[in-house]
Amino acid sequence: MYIQNQQEARMGYGGIVAWGLGLMWCVLAIQDGVGVGVAMEEEEEEERLSGLGHDYGEALGKAILFFEGQRSGKLPSTQRVKWRGDSALSDGTPENVKLSGGYYDAGDNVKFGWPMAFSVSLLSWGAVEYSRELSSVLKQQLTYLLQAIRWGADFILRAHTSSTTLYTQVGDGSNDHRCWERPEDMDTPRTLYKINSTSPGSEAAAEAAAALSAASIAFKGVDSNYSAKLLSRSKLTSTEDLTKLLALSTALTQAIRDELLWAAAWLYKASGESRYLNYVSRNQGWSQAVTEFSWDNKFVGAQTLLAKEFFSGKKELGKFKSDADSFVCALMPGSSSVQIRTTPGGLLYTRDSNNLQYVTASSMVLFIYSKTLAAAQIGGVQCGSAHFPTSQIRAFAKSQVDYILGNNPKKMSYMLGYGSKYPMQLHHRGASIPSIHALPDKVGCNQGYSSWYSSAKPNPNTHVGAIVGGPNSDDQFSDDRSDYSHSEPSTYTNAAFVCSVAALIQKTKEEFLMNITTNMVGVVGYT
């Protein structure tokens, strides 16, 4: 195994295990002191502490670290992924705009603004939803998470060069995919794509508005000036408001309605302005029951956000709550209306190509919606004759996280650097070619393919935290660099996973404490 930075691949990130072990030691000492003998194998002890043997703190830290490996532009002195270097410093030059920075989308060297903004939205949602839990348990990881959000949000701000112009892509996908080069070496065209009043793109504009709005909430109590800037610009992303955004649309098709509801929901959450609430209320007929949450289908994201508003008293938003319920019913095994089946090993299976992006996003929604239901003192979701309590919805979402981390038929982690067995041939240009620091000579387009893409050896750099596309419908996985459908990572897969695993941090500790208290009741000398 070739690992450029062994410390990164092995280091823990303030996980639950160490915390729990100390507490368990104290409990065992108390029990031993009052004459109660307890025999517990080390493996069983760790399983009890961290949830089926997983250190969610470590998984969270590595999922966030992945974003540093995807960075484009001038890297900061605090960069932790050392095999990467500065890249694409001249992006935007042909049109005299500064478009360096941001994230490479996946295993290629293109910056796609639409899915990048979605990744920022998801990371921000996680920071907003779980800020209390993270700040009390893994404060350093919350800091890293905010840094990841800011890296993407700053690029969106730079890409929004005027009230009617938003750059949505840097790089030519076709030319880029014909080459296998490190981002530090790439010499493929850095073609610029933009939307404006004559060339509209409502989906990309709405997602940028959602991302900046969500990020403004995440930074509200951390950096008020930056938060205010993000909110101000979110209202002006490509257009002045959603009404003008609609005017830019060539046609108000079903394809863009999810984006508009999603953007309006976040604009309302961030600003509190009634016009955005009125917009979603007036157009809730657009909402529909869906079976996935992805960068190209945001309906259930908007529904989950607005269902929370419904439970807070805005009863006019009832359709969003009903559609959020339908999403749960479409996913939960045992539901009479289930539409997304699971593999024999228990993994949600939406479609073959990069299936884990749908798994992490669906799990994220299930965690957040079950939390919303519990806070509203709603017992669960009724799906025909089957009733799913919030604890069961949460448990199913947790099973998806655990599957990714190693509780699967292959007994391997689908996150690089987590556990002892994980993919070694990630479909990723930068990770598959030796670091520019180890191999300073330029690696050209064709050389990359012949010498590194086609190599049977493990990647020379372990892209710690990267989550691959995942196994097939039979839980089988071929660790093959050329199999991009199953071996390529993406920013949106990791962003959703960050939110999913964050949901398990504090709760796991609370559950552990509850179990300890329950088990201690009746022990002589315990009060």
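That was protein one. Protein two is written in the same sequence-then-structure order:
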Amino acid sequence: MVGVVGLEIHAQINSLSKLFSAAEVRFLAPPNSLVSFFDASLPGTLPVLNKRCVEAAVMTGLALNCSINRKSLFDRKHYFYADMPAGYQITQQRLPVAVDGKLTYSYLGGHKRNQMVTKCVHIKQIQLEQDSGKSLHDEPHNQTLIDLNRAGVGLMEIVMEPEMSCGEEAAAAVRELQLILQTLGTCRGNMAEGQLRVDANVSVHRPGEPLGIRTEVKNINSARFLARAIDYEIQRQKELLEQGGAVQNETRAFDQKTSTTVPMRDKEDFQDYRFMPEPNLPPLRVYDSASVPAGLDPSQLVLVDELQACLPELPSVRRDRLVQTYSILPEHSFTLVNDDKLLDYFESVVKSTKAAPTKVIGWVMKELVGSLNQQDLEISQSFLLCSPFSPVSPHTLAELLDLLEAGHISSSAAKHVFQELWKSPGKSAEQIVQEQDLGLLSDPAQLRSICQTVVDTHPEQVRAIKQGNQKVLNKLMGEVQKDTKGRANPVQLRAILQEMVST
């Protein structure tokens, strides 16, 4: 049996005000401080559609290769939650703003997880809808408090077809979508703040047979937790069926502490949502510049072709450009594109050094990111590194790489200098090389004398080399580098040792 996964993703639109009211959108505001009369569903209040939210949905649809419906409709979806005062949600059930798109995503797969796997999932639709408020459960006092600050905030519900097979694929798709939304500026994508929430529809079946009964795992706020929840649910359903049981069509939640899913409610008990056209909103129409009806002000309209022309460079295009321009590995392009500040740092170094981009990326990925990790700094905090006051600014690393390229220091000495730069803010690479006498030995006679001493004190290794084991030569080179503190030129060193052991 194999798993089948589809996703419903609720992306909070990055806007100043809510979808149908002028109330401000702000995270961590005091409870119930950002609530308009409409948000509280007071009698006589009417919705006024936020143009920015429509533009965000259209831009997202274009970036996801969707067809944009020039006419879409709003509907009421009726259900009762304490944090939804109206008793219904305004959504787009019948005719959403965008349909029939696709998202291409990649992840590292294979047995050694070193192969780039690229897949595509189809986007069924993108619809505009209201968010609900929040119910805050105060268990010690046996009460529930309602905060309506979030009620009415604009959402894009992005529905992905059930074409994924495991948690790893779903997590990769969500990460790629998150990056696209952040690049567009249509959603901040901070999952910890609830700006991107994922519902996973999971089932299992035997290939060639109809899809199995699905369960829905609700409100997952982390790509890592999403992968765990899906993989657990697939395995749970497989074991249940193998034991002769039946999968229930139910809603489940992911327990982060136990990494398991637990039942929430039975979907068979769901009430009829009683969808009906929203009577207070006319059809939503968007246009192309050439098709604006006479008498309408284009500045008040959403123009699809203008939004298409304004789309920024998308992550997939940027990764391809980096690979083509700098000849770096695809996996390195993913790391760079995932962090704008790291990408800025890399490109600044490339522009300032004579070293090849392939060498620069190695230093950025291994030395720079490694040092950040050692100091418990997130890569997202790498904005500090673009400051001229940073211990290893782009200019400082470029200077160090130029010293290495010019043959003034060895690679081991360069790594030592890099670590010293972290400890000595304000110093240059050149200063550290001079203070610690790390420059390459330039006197051939001195280097030959050191090599002779190593050869004389390691007769067994010399004998092994003469018998054809050339790998042992590397051990002799290591001994010389130890004596010279890494200051010997490797090319010159190898030539001298080979000459000595061959006589």
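Residues 77 and 275 are 5 Å apart (CA to CA). Keep this in mind for the problem set.
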